[in-house]
Amino acid sequence: MIYQPEIKPANIQANIEVKHIATCRLPTEWGEFQMHGFEEVATGQDHVALTMGDIDDGEPVLTRVHSECLTGDALFSQRCDCGPQLQAAMQAIQAKGRGCIVYLRQEGRGIGLINKIRAYQLQDQGMDTVEANVALGLPVDARNFVLARNILHYLHVTDIVLMTNNPQKVATLEATGIEVVAREPLIVGLNKENEQYLQTKHDKLGHML
Ligand SMILES: [Zn+2]
């Protein structure tokens, strides 16, 4: 338990039930993972988890809870650090031979791809990531991490070592009932283009960089 009392957990969001659909092999540049597909019961929205090794033995599992970032994860954007963080997490799991990535389809901290492009447009005109969301009348962070808990529980994972720079995420996951026994930083992917963005995440969202 590394909950920091000065960091308030995000509102404990509605319990979104998920059901497991299928599991397959996923060979990658960072070794072979198992990919587990889930659907939200109410909406059919899909999410995946990648796992490596035996993770259901009760020992803490090296885990990344990653929210989808199409621009960073798949299109090599340098506006953020999502792609390098995902890769570093997969690499760390390969090095350990054991771990889990919960990949939630919550694009743009939950506002969706098109709203993210709208927010980027405002950022091109000088706003920061928080100001842009506020100007659009959108939440700064609309992600639901109860989803992550439900997926981890399906995989019989209750104790994790969380790879993140975001103490809010630690607090929120702990509030859902996941035991975060330690936090491992992921300081990767810094570049000229995302310097200001990462500074804002540090100053306004409490990220540790
Ligand atoms: Zn990103």
From TrEMBL:
Gene3D superfamilies: GTP cyclohydrolase II. One of its GO terms (molecular function) is GTP cyclohydrolase II activity. Binds 1 zinc ion per subunit. Zn(2+) binds at C69, C80, C82. It catalyses: GTP + 4 H2O = 2,5-diamino-6-hydroxy-4-(5-phosphoribosylamino)-pyrimidine + formate + 2 phosphate + 3 H(+). InterPro entries: GTP_cyclohydro_II, RibA, RibA-like_sf. Catalyzes the conversion of GTP to 2,5-diamino-6-ribosylamino-4(3H)-pyrimidinone 5'-phosphate (DARP), formate and pyrophosphate. PANTHER family: 3,4-DIHYDROXY-2-BUTANONE 4-PHOSPHATE SYNTHASE (PTHR21327:SF18), GTP CYCLOHYDROLASE II-RELATED (PTHR21327). This is GTP cyclohydrolase-2. It comes from Vitreoscilla massiliensis. The lineage of its organism: Bacteria, Pseudomonadati, Pseudomonadota, Betaproteobacteria, Neisseriales.
